[in-house]
Amino acid sequence: MIRLDHLSKLYSGRAVVEDVSLTVETGQIAALVGTSGSGKTTLLRMINRLVEPTKGRVWIGDTDAAKIEPHLLRRRIGYAIQGHGLFPHRTVGENIAIVPRLLGWREAEISARIDELMQLFDLDPAVYRDRLPHALSGGQQQRVGVARALAARPELLLMDEPFGALDPVIRAKAQDDLRAIQRQLGTTLVIVTHDMEEAIQLGDRIAVMDKGRLLQFAPPSEILTAPATPFVEALVGAAERPFRLLSLSTVDALREPGEAPGTPINPDTSLREALALCLWEGRAALPVSGGGIVTLAALQARAEGASR
């Protein structure tokens, strides 16, 4: 669990972050979203004391982060940034091993952890362990950057626009992979993004920032259906709202008896994906694995209801 308690940061008397309080429960993903200059990155960097708060406290569990030496605190907190931040003259394995070596892990334990993480991120150690970062694709480099941040089994992972430099296709895959791996490991995660779509895709809760203030901190469904301010409502986007709401539910919620031709889709497929597939392929219904169908009419009715 991480708790921010009336956190503020002032530069020359001007508040960049002003009186922010929120709690991220253990195993949750919190997405900090807002326009440039909203204070979200400064807020993130105060958590691991890359920026020292002017006022307020950061609590990691029951521990006041201000009571921990900064370099020791950062070894407990994973940190991944846009552009991966890998050391170019160190191999993939050496990059992943950095924090465990600083913590004095045994070499056998480090080696096993490198292999474990590389396999988790679908990077064959026999192929990629001894490669330098420049020999990897952008998506592979980003995966190594996240693997490095997770190497010492941190209780908390901070991510600052980690997928901003990736193209849309690779970015969507990276988001899906991160969500799946986070669920598998149970790591508490705070991610900064300027993209509301990404915040909804990843966040269990979304913190909307503007001009240093926290406007709303709530689950994605609440952000979409009950925006706290006109700024939050504008950030959500009136035209996009029904489709973003569809992305929060799966076809299992609209499954009904029946049969339809074609390859069955997974019950965990989002309603948004199912609607897109129906429209793209001109189909009135899709079969669902395990039996039943989801119909275009039901998907459209749900989208229309979400728009009201």
UniProtKB/TrEMBL annotation:
Keywords: ATP-binding, Nucleotide-binding, Transport. The keyword Transport applies. Residues 2-236 form the ABC transporter domain. One of its GO terms (biological process) is quaternary ammonium group transport. InterPro entries: AAA+_ATPase, ABC_transporter-like_ATP-bd, ABC_transporter-like_CS, P-loop_NTPase. PROSITE patterns: ABC_TRANSPORTER_1, ABC_TRANSPORTER_2. The keyword ATP-binding applies. Signal peptide: none annotated. One of its GO terms (molecular function) is ATP hydrolysis activity. It holds the Pfam family ABC_tran. PANTHER family: OSMOPROTECTANT IMPORT ATP-BINDING PROTEIN OSMV. Belongs to the ABC transporter superfamily. This is Osmoprotectant transport system ATP-binding protein. The lineage of its organism: Bacteria, Pseudomonadati, Pseudomonadota, Alphaproteobacteria, Rhodobacterales.
